[in-house]
Amino acid sequence: MVENSVPAIFSEPRRIARVRRAAVRQHVRGAPARFLLDDMAEDMVERLRFVRHLPRRALIIGDTAPTLLAFLEQSGSDVTLALDADPVLPQLSPGFDFIGVLGQLDAVNDLPGALIRLRAALVPNGYVIASFIGGQSVPVLRDAMLAAEPDRPAARIHPLVDARAAPSLLQRAGWKDPVVDTHTLLVRYARFSQLIDDLRDQGLGSALARPAPALSRAALARAQAAFAAHAGADGKVSERFEIVTLTGRRSLAGT
């Protein structure tokens, strides 16, 4: 009998390293980008308020999330923080009545398995919210990367989850009352390098198992020119970020 194996599209060490580098950048840079992380955290607070879910024991994965952390602590929650999901979840015993995941799931080889582990770490009727950037994100950056290497473009942006596939993933993982939502943020950039810095600040660099070599100077110049070609009358480029949010519960039976 042949066992099914999970394709190794992403490198776990590289994925974890990008999160840790982002945490360092958040502390050492004068004004690090946080708009995606903060949007996810604020959205989680709104959802918790809407469903009137005030957890006693909560886990936040992916970022310190000041807005979410403050809300949970003011609500009397005992909060655990973790930078990365994969080293943490296998070690957890069930007991959380809320888990919030900011980012992280965009570069997981076994996404169904991660969703199952999240559910398993909840108490019965526990609530999970997981947000990450989706497949409709960074179209301008994708165009720029193709223009940089027109003859033989290398894989530089890893594949992202299509929101249309998410409902079936949640059902496979056994989530109760699963919901998938998406919304879009448009961000204006004067320079190509600003976009790259923003991605790195928020732990969104490539985590591909087979990373491409660095762009040559000529290729980088082509990427910058292709990026600038999207500029509006004010000289700035609008880049799109799709945020996918998954919500659900563990059943009262605890399964």
How would you characterize the overall build of this protein?
With 255 residues, the protein is α/β, with parallel strands linked by helices. The chain has a six-stranded mixed β-sheet with strand order 2-1-3-4-6-5, with helices on both faces. The model has no long low-confidence stretch (mean pLDDT 89). The protein has helices at 12-28, 35-51, 66-74, 85-88, 111-120, 139-148, 166-172, 192-201, 217-228, and strands at 57-61, 78-82, 96-102, 122-133, 176-189, 237-249. Strand 3, helix 5 and strand 4 form a beta-alpha-beta unit. It has a single domain, classed as Vaccinia Virus protein VP39 (Rossmann fold), CATH 3.40.50. The longest helix is centred in the N-terminal third of the chain and has 17 residues, at 12-28. The two termini are 28 Å apart. This is Methyltransferase. Keywords: Methyltransferase, Transferase. It comes from Erythrobacter neustonensis. One of its GO terms (molecular function) is methyltransferase activity. InterPro entries: Malonyl-ACP_OMT (IPR050602), SAM-dependent_MTases_sf (IPR029063).
Q: Describe the sheet with the most strands.
A: 6 strands, mixed
Pairing-aware structural class of the strands and helices?
alpha/beta
Residue stretches low in confidence (pLDDT < 50, at least 5 long) are: none
The CATH superfamily is known as Vaccinia Virus protein VP39
Indicate how many domains the architecture comprises. 1
CATH architecture: 3-Layer(aba) Sandwich
Distance between the termini: 28 Å
CATH classification class: Alpha Beta
Mean pLDDT figure? 89
Based on Cα principal axes, name the global outline: globular
CATH topology: Rossmann fold
